[in-house]
## 1
Amino acid sequence: MSRSLSSLTWALILLAAMSGCQTAGRISPEQAVMAAAAAAPAGVDGVFTFTVQATGEDKGYVYLNSQADYRDQRNLSVEIPPAVRRELWRKFGADPIDYFKGKTIRVIGTAQRVKIWFNFGGYRTEKYYYQTHVMVRDADQITALPKSVRR
């Protein structure tokens, strides 16, 4: 318990120290990645803002990425499960994988470090790396910002 409290404390200190580097209330992808790593295995709640550089899909989930390469250690991935994908499709009239690409988005949620295992020949290996994800559980968590609000 004290170890996770300590990690959470460091994450809060890190966010406070970097607050001068951001627009009030917004956490950049790089700040989210560092804070989530410091808070692991807990996550970091916040309002995350970035321009979607790339999108991807796996098993019906849509991923909105802050970097062109989702494997980049600075990348923040917004993870949209199939049910929310359908909800967003109805809301915006387009598949979120296309709708959000190139747009600046604001996502309210929890940035959390996720272990990604490497596979070889259809089997999981002992090698892994970490990504930082924000899971969208409700369509109201994510918004495309108007151009006048973008940085």
## 2
Amino acid sequence: MMKHFTTLQPMFLYILPLYLVNSKQRLQKTTNKERVMNLSLENTNFNISLNISIDYISSDDHKTFFQDHITKFSFNNSKLIIKLERSDLKTSSKIKCTSIESETEVEISGCNLSFKPGQNRSILNFPIGYRYIFKTNKKYEFSNHTIMFDIDESGFQSIQFILYHVSIEFEGYTQKCELNSHLSQNVYSYFNSTDVIRPCESGDGKDPDENDDTSSSLNFYGLMTQNLGLLAILISVFLLVCITASLMIYAIVRHRRKPKNVKKVKEPYDWL
């Protein structure tokens, strides 16, 4: 893990100026209205709301796509196709995945991300091995997630996905899944990973509580910050107990120190 972060340090020094140049544009785009789309599979209808950015970052280039640049988002013959284009930069990107629909779930897998950095530049292709499984009885909310994919081991090229807010609302949902994070907390992912991602579910593929229709959250940092008052009370009670116990022990020890010419009488604390 330390080696991984070491390789990121030189990349950061190279891409920081490019990132700062695009920061003003990024701020303007992310304040725009979310992109809302109504989509249908064979037996499932759902709505998607997007406020995202996709960045291609290298030592000499930085291209960014926002939700406004989506020109196609569709399911067709078990295929999910997402196209993004920026005519001003003469660059484009395409995400193509396999979709599998069952009675209770939708699986997205076998994705391939292609990216054309410029008009006279070669197309880059990146297969993504992750499998994403969503339950059709849930509404999913993702906020402030930064996902990084390193293109090569040197760390000088990467693809960055920022999910400012993504909502996937299946028709007739009865449960909610909310996953909130912080944009500054990067999640490093790997193109060759074959992990199965089931949001708001435990490792065995089951919900923590099938009857709970409230939100589920994995934001442990937020949980702690929201309960600082309770934490302070618990610490205060613990300190009070420690102080009280110390005073009792001191009183017991002092009480047991009697003059030598006094005959010892059995005391109630002799069993200690």
## 3
Amino acid sequence: GVVVGIGPGSYTGVRIAITIAKTIAYALKIKVYKVSSLSLLRNPNKPTICVFNARSGRSYFGCYDGDKVLHEDEVAPNEEVLKYIGEHKDYLVNGDTNNLGIESSDFDIIDNLALGINENNLVNNIFTLDPIYLKDLMK
């Protein structure tokens, strides 16, 4: 099967990734599994706040504890993300954190891809698979 991050992230990058996944799955007649791009940054053994730079003083972020979602993916001003991180000092922070002025923990995306292969993430119809665009939901 193919595991693909469906966003949030770069508009063009996410669309390209989904198009490639659909093409491979269709050509090879294999399954596609969709995952949050942020969830690929999690540590499977510790609560993790996962972050991508959304530009313009904002970040995409979500929080995971293994397969459990502690905070749904969202886009928020960097100040709000830093506040959330400050309220959860015992959690790891992974991802693109330079815009927040903090360091990221080490993480392994390859291990997390394998976690995405489960029935909850299975795409039943690849032609209806669409990206997640959180910028449209900005507060």
## 4
Amino acid sequence: ANAWVRRYRIRANGRIEQPALDALAKGVTIDGVVYKPIRASLDQTRGANVWITASITEGKNREIRKVMEHLGLTVNRLIRTAFGPFQLGGLETGAVEEVPSKQLKEQLGAKTCEALGI
């Protein structure tokens, strides 16, 4: 595990106001599971849905979906837009793109790369 930020665009059914999302910055406990702080911002409301941008550092199983459900929202679209320093941009679903060794060394550090044989 690492502490890289994972950034998501979320479309969810329901209504929410920014103060409820701001409260996630303190972390939240749901059914005894403690989730680390989440930075979230309400981007827009469209019809019955809201669009939210969220950043997490943990990535527990279905974390985004569970936290949004806790807030009364049902996630109907979840798009990861970045993983740490890597912007996913227009990468197609299921597609794989090799990260150049030089960039990996810059991001992971020489010691980690040496241990991984990179």
